[in-house]
Amino acid sequence: MGRILIIDDDVQVCETIESLIVRTGHEAVSSYNLRDGLSKVQSGDFDLVFLDISLPDGNGLDYLQQVKDSSGCPEVIILTGKGDADGAELAIQGGAWDFLVKPSSVKQITLSMRRALEFHEEKQNKAQCVALNLDNIVGKSVEIKGCYDLVAHASGSDANVLVNGETGTGKELFAQTIHENSKRSGNNFVVVDCASLTETLVESTLFGHKRGSFTGAQADRKGLIPLADKGTLFLDEVGEMPLSVQKSFLRVLQERTYRPVGENREFKSDFRLIAATNRDLEAMVAKGEFRQDLLYRIQTIHIHLPPLREREGDIRELTAFHLSRLSAQYGVPPKVASSDFYDVLDNYDWPGNVRQLFNVVEQAFVASGSGNTIYAMHLSDSLRIKLAKSNLRKSGQVLSEEVGQIDRNAAESAVQPVSEKKDTVILNRDSVLGNTVSDILTEELPPLKIFKGMAEKKYLEELLLRHEGDTATILKISGLSRSHFYALLKKHGIND
Fold this sequence. Notes:
This protein is of the alpha/beta class. The chain has 4 domains: 3-125, 3-Layer(aba) Sandwich (Rossmann fold), CATH 3.40.50.2300; 142-306, Rossmann fold; 309-379, Helicase, Ruva Protein, domain 3 (Orthogonal Bundle); 431-496, no CATH class. It has 21 helices and 18 strands. The protein has helices at residues 11-23, 34-43, 64-68, 85-93, 106-125, 142-155, 171-180, 202-207, 224-227, 243-255, 281-286, 292-298, 314-330, 339-346, 353-367, 381-415, 418-430, 436-442, 448-467, 471-478, 482-492; strands at residues 3-7, 27-31, 48-52, 54-55, 58-59, 75-80, 98-101, 161-164, 189-193, 208-209, 221-222, 232-236, 257-258, 267-268, 272-277, 301-304, 336-337, 373-374. The chain has a 5-stranded parallel β-sheet with strand order 2-1-3-6-7, with helices on both faces. A 5-stranded parallel β-sheet has the order 9-12-15-8-16. Strands 4-5 form a two-stranded antiparallel ribbon. Helix 6 (142-155) crosses helix 7 (171-180) and helix 13 (314-330) packs across helix 15. The longest helix has 35 residues, at 381-415. It is globular, with a radius of gyration of 28 Å. The two termini are 39 Å apart. 28% of the residues are buried.
C-alpha cells in the first residue's frame, strides 16, 4: 500500500483524487497550502505527491526539488489549472513524474498514479534512493541538485553517460563520482584526452602496440582501452575527436573489441564509457563535424552541468569549502572570507566557472599571508579590473537603453495627435523603469549591492510588463536561461 499526499487549494480536486486513491487500496492525505504540505512531506514518508502549481502561498514548482528530496524520496505529479508549456518543461526538467492539466479524466489520473507508484517501488527495491558519496561535489542550489538524481541513476547502471557543460563546471569530477559510486569503483578510471588524439597515434594510444610494429616501438605498450577493462573509460572533450578517429572508436564501442598495432588477434575490454564535452554535439552533427551514430551511442544518460552564474547561492559554499581545503593543504589555521570579498564574488559572471573560482580563491588565500581573514583587496588586480569594467558596461548599457527610449518617446510624441499623446503619457507613467533611477538617486544613496538588486528587480518587472509575460521573448531579450530567469523571479518575489 502506498502513501500519497495531495497538495492543492481546490477542496473538490483533493476529495476527487482522495476517492480514487482509497478505491485503489492506498492511503491518502490532503493539504490545501504549501506550508502545511511541506510540513507533512517532511514529517512522513510518502511514495507519491500530487503538487499543484498555483497555491495561495507560492508556486509549487519552486518547491519541487524540496519535495523530491524529502525522507521518502517520493515521485511527484504536477497539477495545473491551465495548459502551460513552460511549466511542463520546468516540471519535467525538475524530475516530476508527470504533468496533468485540471480537470483530467479519472482514467488519466489513475493510470499516471499507478505507473508512478510502480516506478517508485522498483526504484526502492533497487536501492537507488540512497545517499551517494558526494565528498568532492559542493552545492545545494536547485540547479546542481537536479544533477544528483542523474548521478545516482548513472551510478546504479552500466549505461554510457554524456556529461556536458561549460569549461570549468566539473565534468571530470562528476564522471569520477559516477565511477566511484558504481560497481566498477575498484578498477581503473582511465582518462582519454580526445583533443590530443592524432590520426597517426590514435590506434597505438587507444589499443596499444607490439614491439617493432613501427619505427620507435621499442617495447610492447598497453593501450588505454585495455587499461580500462572492468573499469571506466572517460573520453574528455569528446567533441574534439577527429572524424576519422570517431569512425575507429565507434566499432570498439559497439563490439568492445580492439586490436593492438602489430597484433593479428582481437582482444576484448569490458569498459564502461563516460564522455564529456563543452560543445553542442547536436549542432556539430548538423554541420557534419560529429557522427550521429556515435552521439546516439554515448548519450544513453545525459547530464547537463549548469554554469556557476546560474547556481544561486553556491558561490559562497564553494568558496568556504575550498578555503577549508587550502588551509589543510598549506598547514595553516582556518581562514574566513569577509563580506566585501563575497560581494565581489557574487557580482562576477565567472566565465571559467568553478575552476576559475577556485583559482581566484587560492590566489587571495596566498595573498592574505598570515592573516585569518580574506578581504576583497586580496583579490588580484586583474579580476577587480575585469569586474569594474563589467559593471561599467552593464550600467552603460542600461543607461543608453533608457536614453534611447526617452529619445524615441520624444520623437513619437512630436508627431502624434493630441488624443494619442494622452495614451503615451499613461504608458510612460506606468512603465516600471520610468523614474526608478531618479527616484533612488534623489534619496540617500544605498550601497552598490543593494542598488544593483533594486535595479535588477525593476528590470525584471519591466520585462514582464512590456512583453506581457511572453517567456520566449523575455529570454531572447534578456539573454537569461529559463532556469536563471525563474530563479531571479523567485529571488525578488515577483509573481509572473
